[in-house]
Amino acid sequence: MKTPSPGRFLSRQIIEESERVLMPTYGRFPVALVRGRGCRVWDADGTEYLDFLSGVAVCALGHAHPEVTAAIRAQAERLVHVSNYFHIEPQVRLARLLVDHSFADRVFFCNSGAEANEGAIKLARKYAKERIGAGRFEIVAMAGSFHGRTLATLTATGQEKVKEGFDPLPPGFVHVPFDDAAALEAAVTEKTAAVLIEPIQGESGVKVPSDGYLAAVRGVCDRHGILLILDEIQTGIGRTGTLFAYEQCGIVPDVMTLAKGLGNGVPIGALLATEKIAQVFGPGSHGSTFGGNPLACAAAAATLSVILRDGPRGETLLDNSLRMGAHLLAGLNAIRAKHPDVVADVRGRGLMIGLELNRDAKPVVDEALSRGLIANAAAGNVVRLLPPLIVTEAEADEAIEILDAALLRASVPSPAAC
Description:
The protein is an alpha/beta fold. It contains 13 helices and 15 strands. The radius of gyration is 22 Å and the shape is globular.
């Protein structure tokens, strides 16, 4: 990590002004980032960091990727926004890419993951009432899940801490334990319209379900004639080593939501569905002013094209996600063996990895930051790693070395604890 030049206080000025004018909704790191390239970012004082958070799984191609930048620049020079009252060429191009590489027949574009999940909830309820039964409106979701911050997606989220102070919440959501197919089966009633689930729970600490669990969930939905909605907002777009995580589970959903990595930093969300289900969304039933605008779709189409393209050695970035994920897991398991008093578990798929500690993860994350590595703490005691899909073996080794040093520091008792 390069240290800032003496006497420069640009970051401090930005941070102080941020704390004066912005709502205090985030527990921000004391860092003001102003520039990025590949897997690295720099703050206003010139300090360099290895970014293993990627804007929380957003910058799949890293920062300032030349092809995405070129697509944004070219589109901005032509047309930034028109209403969805018109046909939009970049939107059609992106939708075709998604349809051709997924189970889906139709796509609806919006601005975020929460908005995509809102759309999925509306679509499921409308479909259920029109095609399954008028009394079906409930969505079964999972304990520990995270689906967004709007009132409906907040209610769908299976974490009580994010709901405090927002009562009354919308009715129609039921929660069951994650990775428990029997509990899901028992929760389905004549009111159930759909099951909403993440293939891997990211915000709860990268919780990977047992083999066969998602197939069992699909089976429950099929037996009861209800919809399966997969929230792939964090797992999608190559994060787990395939374009979508469901591809590794031997199932297909009825509805899927995407966001985060789709636009490589440009805000965009997507709701995907089969033809039969999508048809209940007729004109006027749903909409979004900015969703699917030309600029966002041009960025997302460029991002997706790069991820799907073979590299010079015939390796796609999906292959790199699997290979670098395995490399990181091996390195982190070696760290676990060195620090058995601190590290409880290492888990993940592709480049979605959690290092579970037997203590608060924030001091380790803060120590790693001071050594030039950006990660974050999930579920209190998990160091979450979400590097760009372009990460190299040298960068993975650098991250492992920094985490090793941070854990070593964390495992040394403080003088007050002696």
